[in-house]
């Protein structure tokens, strides 16, 4: 089962998830990484669930058109939309604070 390491607010949260898991779907039904994952629409339209991939990016499919539209050059910095990825391997993510 994929292991997820999630960094936020200087804390680290870890858990295992079933293969083909989407973290926004899990958070929506109040499972890990709820309540720590920031998200909103779950459809790739708002980018609130953007996370920087610290490890495991090589196992993810290429960014889709929604990610390219919402993240732009942030993709080159390692960001992905959590709502658009389904985990099949271990991954380490960091969600930064939104700055105005």
TrEMBL record:
CDD domains: fer2. Signal peptide: none annotated. Residues 34-85 form the 2Fe-2S ferredoxin-type domain. It holds the Pfam family Fer2. This is 2Fe-2S ferredoxin-type domain-containing protein. It comes from Cupriavidus pampae.
